[in-house]
UniProtKB/TrEMBL annotation:
Assigned protein family: Belongs to the TonB-dependent receptor family.
Subcellular location: Cell outer membrane
Lineage of source species: Bacteria, Pseudomonadati, Pseudomonadota, Alphaproteobacteria, Rhodobacterales
InterPro entries: Beta-barrel_TonB, Beta-barrel_TonB_sf, Plug_dom, Plug_dom_sf, TonB-dep_rcpt-like
Name of protein: TonB-dependent receptor plug domain-containing protein
Main location: membrane
Keyword Calcium: no
Taxonomic source organism: Pseudogemmobacter faecipullorum
Residue ranges annotated for the TonB-dependent receptor plug domain, each copy included: 45-153
Signal peptide: 1-19
């Protein structure tokens, strides 16, 4: 705690922070485009944070993790690595248990990417951040209810741009080119986006991105051991706004990668797992119909059909290690159909915003032997059908309430054991009260159950029934405050504050192997977030997370409580910057974490500083060209987060240049 307090005081006393508190001035407020969203969360639920616009563009992000690293409750793992970066929410995700853990969910344009443990990350990590229109991070189960069952930690939803976002919704062609490079690992990126709007109601988008990077070093000059990557990514998207009420949108994305002599697990360097060659291909295709008639407030309908496929060829290079048992060619296909509607209606004095829907999904996984292998094929699949409804109600006098329900049925099995069926139920309620001066308070209670994934379930295990017909259970309490004010310290300034305290208990947890002795988890935490902006262009945003995460285990017939193996530790994030009227934007960011110690590990406290300068040429031959220069880990600190077992990159100088023609 002393380390975190020190870094917090250091940040608060910086000249830029003092400047942001004392100066006032005139036109154009800039919030850094990270906002606490009230429209997208259930009344009474935990915070929902939306990152959008220029904040994404100026982040120099290589991955989704880079975009959301400022969000409270989120931990960024393996920054800048397209193939291994993962987000953690309240201590879940971002570790090698991530794919089999229902506590978190990542979706891109409404399509969840579950790559499975063998792939080590979801398809959403490959999406080019330059194509992201917004990223919404919902904390807790009530705010995440529509995304799936058992999401006790939170969810991340990415929305990509349409062609009309580049053309300004005007008929014509637009082309955006971005090139960039970084010093640590000699990385480079090129992203080419063509937008065509042949008619007012029709637009298309085509993007090709390739990111390449060699093996990076930590702050001590030691190689990180992940070898690097060279990943092409292609996306096509088209939208037809048929009339005022109807629209059709189609999207197809694919990527591929080839890795040689890399650790089997991307989350730790361990001789137990061994090294592999791994070739991967992935694709995601979806079609959505939206129907929103102006004459009815009861219909705001969306039907979405999607298919995602991931193929991974894993060749073990270390006989006798775990990688040898995992060797094979994996082909996983997931089909989904979702139908969702939002109805606005009045019942007496109560105003309702009712969102409800049905979703069906089916996943097949086939593991085939590699050439020369004698093992038999292994096939597994699941089918899920679910219903959800969440009613946000306004009673007047600034009282709001939410009731949420989700019921989901799953049948799961493989060709080595029997089939099992299970039903997951989620029920939550929240209450919120506004006090008329920008201050509001909220609280919620949610019970949720999570279904096993194909990584967790296996009929071949002696305790396979535990995974098949039982469910992971959790209960979450949330309490919080939110405050919004304008012209508080100076004319035209803007301040938003948010505080959420949560307690989550998880029992009958999902495991990734038989015989695991973990009985449950208890997560407690406080998340604080603040955004401040002045008319003259000064802005600041910060977050602080305090956590106390424990797990209960059975060892030798004795029940013990210990620190959670992936306790994220207390963390602080602060960004202070200035946006000038001549196209210049400068900012400084610090991320700090307290040391986390247990019988299994010791992780020292750390603080990492980043600086960024962005300039958009205002006139002349370079008019409209955007230069983004950043230095991550400015002081070349050797560190790793409490969740990961691998070091993060050392100092990394990045330069991106982009232009829209």
């Amino acid at each position: 705690m002393r380390n975190l307090t020190y870094y917090l005081c250091l940040a608060a006393c910086s000249p830029l922070a003092l400047h942001a508190e004392t100066r006032s001035s005139s036109p154009s407020t800039y919030l850094g485009e990270i906002v606490l969203s009230t429209e997208e969360r259930a009344a009474g639920s935990g915070s929902v944070t939306r990152v959008e616009g220029e904040q994404i563009e100026r982040a120099q992000a290589s991955t989704l993790v880079d975009v959301i690293r400022d969000v409270p409750g989120v931990n960024a793992i393996h920054r800048g690595s397209v193939l291994t970066s993962q987000p953690s929410i309240r201590g879940f995700g971002g570790n090698h248990h991530y794919p089999g853990d229902p506590a978190t969910n990542v979706s891109v344009d409404g399509v969840s990417g579950d790559g499975g443990r063998i792939y080590q990350n979801a398809t959403g990590m490959i999406t080019d951040p330059a194509l992201m229109k917004s990223v919404t991070v919902a904390m807790g189960p009530l705010a995440s209810l529509e995304h799936g069952s058992g999401i006790s930690a939170g969810s991340i939803a990415v929305e990509t741009i349409n062609g009309a976002d580049l053309t300004g919704d005007e008929i014509g062609l637009k082309f955006r080119q971005m090139v960039g490079g970084n010093s640590n690992g000699d990385g480079w990126v090129t992203s080419s986006t063509l937008a065509w709007q042949p008619a007012q109601n029709l637009d298309f988008l085509l993007n090709y991105t390739r990111r390449a990077q060699g093996e990076q070093e930590n702050g001590d000059g030691t190689l990180l051991g992940q070898r690097g990557f060279n990943v092409p990514n292609l996306m096509f998207k088209g939208r037809w706004r048929i009339d005022e009420a109807n629209s059709l949108t189609f999207s197809h994305t694919r990527y591929e990668s080839a890795e040689r002599d890399v650790p089997y697990t991307s989350m730790m360097n361990s001789a137990v797992f061994g090294n592999v060659n791994r070739d991967r291909e992935g694709s995601s295709t979806w079609l959505a119909w939206n129907y929103t008639p102006a004459v009815s407030s009861l219909i705001d309908l969306e039907l979405r059909i999607s298919r995602s496929e991931q193929i991974s060829d894993v060749e073990s290079l270390t006989p006798g290690k775990f990688s040898a048992t995992a060797e094979g060619i994996y082909d996983q296909t997931t089909d989904r159909i979702t139908l969702k509607n939002t109805s606005s209606l009045l019942t007496g004095a109560v105003s309702h915003r009712l969102r409800y829907g049905l979703d069906w999904s089916h996943q097949d996984r086939l593991r085939s032997p590699r050439p020369g292998q004698t093992r038999a094929e292994e096939a597994a699949d699941y089918t899920r059908i679910g219903f959800f409804a969440i009613d946000n109600m306004e009673f007047g006098n600034d009282w709001q309430a939410s009731l949420g329900l989700r019921v989901e049925r799953q049948t799961i099995g493989d060709n080595l054991g029997g089939d099992y069926s299970a039903t997951a139920r989620t029920l939550g309620a929240g209450l919120e009260k506004g006090f008329g001066n920008g201050l509001s308070a909220f609280g919620s209670l949610t019970y949720t159950e999570g279904l096993a994934s194909l990584d967790v379930y296996s009929g071949r295990y002696a305790n396979g029934a535990l995974h098949g017909d039982n469910v992971q259970q959790s209960r979450t309490y949330e309490l919080g405050l939110k405050y919004e004010a304008d012209s508080l310290f100076a004319d035209g300034d803007s301040l938003t504050l948010g505080l959420t305290a949560y307690q989550t208990s998880i029992w009958n947890p999902m495991y990734s192997a038989a015989g695991n002795a973990t009985l449950g988890y208890d997560m407690k935490g406080i998340e604080l977030q603040a955004n401040y902006a002045m008319e003259e262009g000064l802005y600041a945003r910060g977050s602080v997370n305090f956590v106390d995460h424990t797990e209960t285990a059975l060892a030798g017939g004795v029940v013990t409580r210990k620190n959670y193996a992936y306790d994220p530790g207390h963390q602080l994030g602060l960004t202070v910057g200035k946006r000038f009227g001549n196209g210049l934007d400068m900012s400084w960011h610090v991320q700090a974490g307290e040391g986390v110690y247990s019988a299994a590990r010791a992780n020292a406290g750390w603080a990492v500083h980043d600086v960024k300068v962005s300039y958009t040429a205002q006139a002349g031959a370079l008019e409209g060209v955007v230069f983004d220069l950043g230095i991550d880990n400015l002081f070349d600190r050797a560190y790793h987060t409490a969740i990961s077992r691998l070091d993060e990159p050392g100092r990394n100088i990045k330069l991106n240049i982009s232009k829209t023609f």
